Amino acid sequence: MKNIIESPFVVDMMRMTANMYRMGWDERNGGNISMMLDEQEVKEYLDIDSSIRAIPMGFEAKPLIGKIFIVTGTGKYFKNVEFDPENNLGIIRIAPDGVTANLLWGYSDGGRPTSELPAHLMSHMSRLAVNPENRVIMHSHPTNTLAMTYVHELDEKKFTHSLWEMCTECIVVFPDGIGVLPWMVCGTNEIGIATAEKMKEFRLVIWGQHGIYGCGKDLDEAFGLIETVEKAAQLYLMTANMPRVNTIHDNELVELAKAFKLNYRRDFLYLD
Questions:
Q1: Which residues of 235-256 are buried (b: 16+ CB within 10 A; e: fewer)?
Q2: C-alpha to C-alpha distance for 208 and 178, rounded to whole angstroms
Q3: What element of type H or E holds 253?
C-alpha cells in the first residue's frame, strides 16, 4: 500500500486547514471539513474493508452507505493538522446499517469525527441529490461574515443582495444566493436538518452569530465560495457607516448575469 500521508486527499486537507487557520477563520477547534473520497483512489492506500473501530453517528444516513469521507476531528485544531494529520483527521466509511461510521484511518488518540458530522452528512445528501459532483462540505467562522450577521437583517434576499452589491464578482461566484439561518444550538441534528434543507437550494448557508457552510466539487471550490463572501462582508462593514456615493445597481447586476450566462436568483433583485 502507498503511504497515506502522501495521498492527494490527506495533503490537500493538511494544506487547506493550515490556510484557513492562517486566515483567522478557524480559531482553536472552530470549523470542520468533510470530503467524500473516490473508493478506487482510497484503495491504493487503505484496506477499505478493514475497520479500526465503529463510531455511532446518532442519525441515519442510508443514502451514503458505503461512501468514504475524510473528516476533521472533534476538538481538534486546524493549526495542528499539517503537523499530525493521523491524530487530527480521520477517514470513515458509512456502515451498512446507515447509522454507524467505520473508522478506516486516523483519530489515533481515540478521537471522533467533528460534532457537526450529522450536519455535514445531511448536507452531503442534499447536495449530491442536486449535483453529484459536490463532494466537499466546509464550515468556518470567517470574521467579517460573522460580524455582518450582528448588524444586517438575517433575510436571504436582503443579505444576498447586500453582498452582490459589494463586488462585481459576487453574483458571478454565487448566483444562486445565500441561505440564512437564525442562531441555533450547534452540534445538533436540528441545525443539521435545517442546514440540509437550505442546501437543497443554496451552496452557501450562513449560521447567524456563528459562521458559514459552503460546498463544492473540491476543497478549492468550497473555499473560494466562502472567501468571496468574506471579502464582500468586509467591504460591507468598511462602508456601512459611510454615505453610499456609488454602488452596483440592480440593472447592472442583470447585465453581469447576461454577460456570464448565469442562472441566478432574479427574485433577489429589486426590479420594477
A1: bbbeeeeeeeeeebebeebbeb
A2: 12
A3: helix 250-259
Residues 163 and 176: their CA atoms lie apart, in Å, by: 12
User: Which grid cell sits at 131?
Assistant: 449535483
What are the distances in angstroms from CA 25 to CA 39, 140, 226? 30, 6, 10
Alpha-carbon gap, residue 228 to 119, rounded angstroms: 23
Q: How are beta strands 179-181 and 204-207 bridged, if at all?
A: parallel
CATH 2.40.160.10 fits 1-115, yes or no: no
For the chain, the farthest-separated pair of C-alpha atoms sits apart, in whole angstroms, at 63
pLDDT in tens, 115-146: 999 999 999 999 999 999 999 999 999 999 99
Answer whether 0.90 is exceeded by the pTM.
Answer: yes
Fold assignment, 117-272: L-fuculose-1-phosphate Aldolase (3.40.225)
Report the percentage of the chain scoring pLDDT > 90: 96
Residue 3 CB neighbours (<10 A) = 8
Give the Cα separation of 250 and 187 in Å (integer): 38
For the stretch 217-261, pLDDT in tens is 999 999 999 999 999 999 999 999 999 999 999 999 999 999 999
Indicate where the chain has its CATH 3.40.225.10 domain(s).
Answer: 1-115, 117-272
Residue showing cell 492527494: 8
Q: Which helix (H) or strand (E) holds 203?
A: none
Give how far Cα 112 sits from Cα of 7, 71, 101, 107, 153, Å.
21, 9, 10, 6, 36
Residues with catalytic function = 116
